[in-house]
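Quick one:
INPUT:
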């Protein structure tokens, strides 16, 4: 099993920056992509950004140009650099990872989630 632990959340004023980290541990072989999601108060969880094993990134329109996702494969750690934060960025941020499991002739992808870290942006 893969365990994901987020860190770096907190309280920041509008216009400020935070960097979130997510460390993957356990049986992490076969992880193909990792991502960040967030759940604002009273809303459903939504995609923030994802990065695949080849470095391809995808961002939600709301964060393009402000957030940057990166992955350190040697440390099994995912990062989210958040700049120019806005009050509407306030949410619980979750790290996730997709792991491919065999047999090779019938591969299945299993998704793991962290417990989340609170990001609060004040006006």
């Amino acid at each position: 099993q893969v365990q994901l632990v987020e860190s770096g959340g907190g309280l920041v004023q509008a216009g400020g920056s935070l960097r979130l980290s997510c460390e993957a541990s356990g049986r992490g072989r076969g992880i193909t992509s990792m991502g960040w999601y967030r759940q604002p108060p009273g809303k459903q969880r939504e995609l923030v950004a994802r990065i695949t094993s080849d470095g391809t990134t995808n961002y939600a329109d709301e964060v393009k140009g402000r957030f940057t996702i990166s992955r350190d494969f040697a440390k099994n750690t995912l990062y989210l650099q958040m700049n120019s934060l806005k009050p509407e960025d306030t949410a619980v941020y979750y790290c996730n990872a997709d792991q491919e499991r065999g047999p090779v002739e019938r591969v299945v992808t299993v998704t793991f989630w962290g417990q989340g870290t609170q990001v609060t942006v004040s006006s």
